[in-house]
Structure formats: structure tokens, C-alpha cells
Amino acid sequence: MKKKSTSQSAFFNLRVLLGLVLALAGVFIALLGFGAFSNASAQANATQEPKIQQFGETTVISAWHSDLSAPLREQPLIWPPAEAEHEANLNPQIPHQHEDGPDPVIQSSLWQRLIGVPSIPAPILQWAGIPFPGVSCNCAPPDPNGEVGKTQYLQMVNEGLQVFDKVTGTSLLGPIAISSIWSGFGGACQNGGNGDPVVIYDQLADRWIISQFATPSGATVPQDECIAISQTGDATGSWYRYGFHLTSNFLDYPKLGVWPDGYYMAANVFNTAGTAFLGPQPFVFDRVKMLVGDPTATSQTRGIIGGSSEETFLPADLDGIIPPPAGDPNHFVAFPQGSPLIYKIWAYHVDFTTPANSTFAIEASVGAASFTSLCPTTRNCVPQVGTTSRLDAIGDRLMFRNAYRRFADGRESMLNNYTVSANSVAGIRWFELRRTQPGNWSIFQQSTYQPDTTWRWMGGIASDNQGNVALGFSASSSSISPQIRYAGRLATDPLNSLSGEQHLFDGAGSQSATSNRWGDYSDLTVDPVDDCTFYYTNEYYLTTSSFNWRTRIGYFKFAECTAPQKGTAHFIVTACTGGTPISNASVSIDGRPYGATLSNGTYDTLLSPGSHSYTVSKAGVGTQTGNFTINNSQTTNVNVCLGNNPSPTPSPSATATATATATATATATATATATATATATVVPSATPTATATATATATPTATATATPTPAGIMLSARGYQVQRRNTVDLTWSGATSGTVDIYRNNALLISTSNDGLYTDPIGNRGHGTYTYKVCEAGTQTCSNSATVNF
Fold this sequence. Notes:
Blueprint: E1 2-3, H1 12-33, H2 39-42, E2 52-55, E3 58-62, E4 65-68, E5 87-89, E6 106-107, H3 109-115, E7 125-128, E8 139-140, E9 145-148, E10 152-157, E11 160-165, E12 171-177, H4 187-191, E13 193-202, E14 207-214, E15 224-230, E16 239-245, E17 250-259, E18 262-270, E19 277-285, H5 287-290, E20 298-301, E21 313-314, E22 316-319, E23 330-334, E24 342-349, E25 359-367, E26 402-406, E27 412-422, E28 425-435, E29 442-449, E30 455-463, E31 469-477, E32 480-489, E33 501-506, E34 523-526, E35 534-541, E36 549-556, E37 567-575, E38 586-589, E39 592-596, E40 602-607, E41 610-618, E42 622-630, E43 635-642, E44 670-675, E45 695-700, E46 714-722, E47 725-733, E48 739-744, E49 747-753, E50 757-760, E51 769-776, E52 786-789
Parallel strand pairs: 5-8, 6-29, 22-26, 37-43
Antiparallel strand pairs: 1-5, 2-3, 3-20, 4-16, 7-36, 9-10, 10-11, 11-12, 13-14, 14-15, 15-16, 17-18, 18-19, 19-20, 21-23, 23-24, 24-25, 26-27, 27-28, 28-29, 30-31, 31-32, 32-33, 34-35, 35-36, 37-40, 38-39, 38-41, 41-42, 44-45, 46-47, 47-50, 48-49, 48-51, 51-52
């Protein structure tokens, strides 16, 4: 939480007046230009009074307001800030009843020499992230975290955000204030944001989720959580916005995780003075409704769990293309507790239809190796060169994120870490929990990484699709300034060991003040496309100084990692009558909520090869179910219509491929007209005697024969501005040649490699219309047309 210095009050009246003028201007512009942006905005709650209901042990909290923002790229750039006062973030320590004991799992340098040191990959690229003052926060620590999506990397700090091209590190937007997203929203989210920002990426839906806590009017500490979900996979576009008043206490350290049925969150709850820990509290937010901007989306909580003696926990956050088993609850993992030590694993099962059925209960208690707490009574802990100031390693909690992954063979993994004292320096205790159903969670491996006399802390951990593990962290000692490093292990290495270390970036200065605060969390995430490349962000200093932190972002991958087998399901959802695209239709696959259609009625997601089922629905329009097949490296078109004349139900007994020629004939009072789309295949539902190898629509008293055509090249285009100059990102799939020809407005723009991605730096400013096609090189085998309007 930000603690304001007295110097800020000198600017208060001027800032409030200026802010009021800007806010009124923004509202006026919004009324003129953005009125058609959102059904959710039109239906948004008229008041900012939260509705709270009790159903058994479950509390249901409605959003006090929700709407759709204007595109983020159209918000004013706030950089640099207009003021330069210093602020510090309050983060009360969590009391523990921990009993120190010998650490039996320390990985020493001798152990590394015994097992050998395989090559740990060097950074492929690293670049500067958001620097102090974090746009307008002027605070410490920066709480650096970030996430990688299909084409972008989004970083957040206190209190700024920036969007980068994930391959080149080029800035696409920002840095801008987090408050830009909440411009015009009102209430605590617009006026009382206090930091603790979090960004996660929902790869099932191809959406971004950001949050920060906020202090409502009349309160002295954060009690609200402000959550925004991107309307598309473009983080520079519009966002569905929600404000939730979650507690009358101090809501600290809120951390989110993606799960198919909800966005789950854990918070550490204190009294409003910050002097008494009340206990950990779990929350869950209605993901399905929030993906479509539904203003009736709610949050649920089971209240504070266990009281002040209960250890804090983190929710599972999904990595990889394989979701958890259908109906599986989210798994909250707690900091080790008790004697002997155990990790409590809590299962949060949510029921948004019947909230009284929601449960939060222990599903496993797993043994943890003993350890010695690091600096349990002081924040003056980690040494640095060139200053007597030491740094806080916050060894009192698990570090963000609790990374969950399900592998192709069905086994499941959760990875996490925390900082301990090992041989009188800070080391990182990392651990992996595994489960193979119908069994329960157990320790698969655990170790304290402390190979030498350097202090290591503030970790972030994850694995790629093959089980190779990477651990990022800060490193410092009395002879070096804080550095950003990472270590790792191959899945084939001996258990309980990290087999090497690399430097992402070495700081050239130390931090001389800021109440010893450092980082609060770092973040290691995995590329959702290749499921191999790790992205990491953390804090460092350029020169020894106070309140002058910098952040760095970089990525790397193990050479041994290969992308998993996968294909793309391309849903095309239209009205059965008239064929109008249907936006905000919810899509479930194999019994799990996945995503929602965009404004053009399409929705794409990556899936493992094989047969899959779907349900597509939209309230007031209709519901349709069916089946389709995914082939490796191919796109499958799944055509669905909703309304009075539903799509036929696909059948796994009929098969059509993109290269096949098939004839569909139906002989009864109704027959079928058929077209093939990749591997999605159906039979007519109008009569039990009809058979087809293609998508079929029943028509009366006619006999039809149809020949399927290949799915072809699928093209999408996204327009945005870089320094106010028009730029378009093109993405495509389905081309088979080594190179492709790209046409803009029917003129050949470029011949380029067939890597599925091209950025057209048009350079023009102002209005313009650009229509693109991608063709197999030297042929007229082309994609659909994709048009961008500026």
C-alpha cells in the first residue's frame, strides 16, 4: 500500500482541480465517442453500492460498478510524472509459529560438482522495463511482474504498465499509469488505486487480466479489488472493468490465478491499522461472465480461513494448453506450518449457480523439509555492496505464482518457492507437488538452492511443457550489487537439484533507503505459443541511490524443449437466420469453460490433437453443442449458428479432412447441403437416415450433393498506433509454402517467410482503411480479406 509523504499535500488542491477538469473532459469525450463500446457499460450498475448476500458459509459480492473502457492505446500518456516525492509501501509482516530446524535439502556447491553442471541457456534477449517512478507512484518497492501472451508481453509495477512486442522487446504502449485503465470508471478504482498490481494471462481465452487494490472513500486502507479483463488478446485495446468491495479490513498482497471456472485470488487480511494479522482469505470471481463484460458477475468468498494462526496461501495459476480435469477445484497451496512441517493444500470448489454448494476444504497435507526462517524479526536483512542498508527478503510467504501444469500423460504439477536461511545466507526453498489421479498431491521434489555465499531471494518459478524447470531470483552480497539471475534443471536431471545458473542482468548500484523494501515479487511465466520460452522480470539499481529502481525483462529457453503437439480451433459463430456474427458467445470445450467470441463472432484456442466436444451459448440467443477434431499444426474451422435454426450436432462417426473430396447425400423428407471445414465433421440432424462427411444444414424436399473445400489460409489483422503512426499486426495460419505474399489494398506489399506473423509499419497518421490478404507465394491461393480502419 502506498504511504503518502507530507510533500504530496502541497500539490493536493491543484492536482484535484486539474484531475476534475480532466475527468469531466474525459467523460464528455466518452459520451461523444465511446457510447457504443459496451453493452456492459450500458447495463452497468447505476450506483456504487455493493450488494452482498450470504448463502450458507459463502458470501456473494456483486461488483459495485462495471463497464467497458475506451481502448487503452487512446488514453493520454502520463510520463514523466509531475511530482517527485518519495513514497513507501506498507506491507505488514505475517506472524509465524515456526520452529527452526536443520535444513536436510540444501543443495551445496559440492552437490553441483558431483552431479555436473549442464549448460543452462543464456538469455535470448533482455531489455529495460518500467523504471522508477513507475509513472506516477514514486514508491518502493516496485512489485514488478509481467506476463507473456501470443504476441505481447505486459509488465506492471507500482503504479504503471507497459506493453511490449514479446519477440523484439519494442514498446507498443507506455509506460502509462495503471489509472489510465480506470479513467472515467469512478469510485475507488479511479481515485483510490494503491498498487499491489498483478497481471496474468488467460491462455484458454486469449485475454489479459490485471488487478490492483484500492482504498474506497472514507477508508484508510485498501478494501476493494479492481479487476480488468481485456476485450481481446490485444492488451492495448479495450478492457472490461469491475470494482469489488471485498472487506471492511485491510486487504493486503492479493494474488490471482487463472482456472477454467473462475479467477481465483488469495489475500492476507489485517486490521485497518495494519497491526494485527486476521488470517488468509480466498476469493473467486466469475470468469465466464467477466469474459463477456456481464455486469451481473459476482465474487465469492468463504471468509477468513483459520484466523491469525493459519498460514497464507496462493491459488493455482494455469500454464500450458492442457486444462485441469473437468470440474476440478482450484488448488490453494499454503506456506509450511506445524510440527512436523506440512504444506496444506486447499481445494476451492465454486458453484456460481448455487453458491451454498461452494466449498473450501483441505484436500491434502504434504510433508515439508525443515528449515530456518530468514530474518524473522527484521527487514534489514540482505547485504549489498557500497551501503550499510540491507534489503527485505519477505521470507514470511510463498512467492507469486503457484504455477500449475497438467502434462500430456495426465500427471499434474504445482511449483512454488519461498526464501529461507541456509548456511547463514538467504537461499530459495523450491518445491514441486505432483498428482496422478485418482491419487492425491504429494511431494515430488524439494530443495534449498544455496550453492555458495551469495544471498538469493525473491524467486519466481515455472516449468515448460516437458517438465524442465526454471527459477528466477535476485542475488546480492556484501561484495556485489543486486543482480537478476535464474537457475534451472532439465526434467532428466537428478531430482531435488538445479543444475546451473545464468545472469539475466547485473545491477550496477545498490539501494540505500526505502525502508529496506525490495521487489515484493518477481514473475516467471511461460510463452503460451511454444510452451518452452520462459519470460522473467525483476528489479535492479543502475547506481547506488534511494528511490531510483529499474526493472528488466528477458527470455530464454532450454534447447531440449520442443513445442507440444497442438492445433487451433477456430470457432465462427453466427445467427442461424441472416448469418450475423454473434459476439460474446461463451465457448466451452470438453466440459470446461474456455473463452468467448469477439466482435466478428470468432474465437480461437490451442488444443491437443484428437476429438473434442463443444458447447456454445449466449443468453437470449441460444445454445448449440457438437464435436470436432484437431490435427497437429492445423486449424480446424468450427462453424456454429445460434438461434431458431440451430447448427446440426457434429458426429464423430463422419470424417472430412481439409484435403478430402466428399459427397453428402441425404434421402428422406429432408436432405443436406454440406461443406467441409478442416477436420470438423458432422451428420445432418434432420433425419436419422441422413449421412454426411461435412457440415450439414437440413432443407425440405431437396436432394443435394456438395464437395468440401479446404479450410485454406486464415488471416487476422490488428491495428494500433506507435508514436501516433498507423501500424498493423498480421497473423495467419494454414499456409503451406516456405514464403507467402502479403497484399495491402490489392497491391503486393512484401514476400516474407511463412512464420505466421508480420508487422506492417504503415507510417501514416490519421484515418485510413487497409485491407490485407496473405497468399501462397506466387499463387492465387489466398486467405480471407482482413480490413483495419483507423
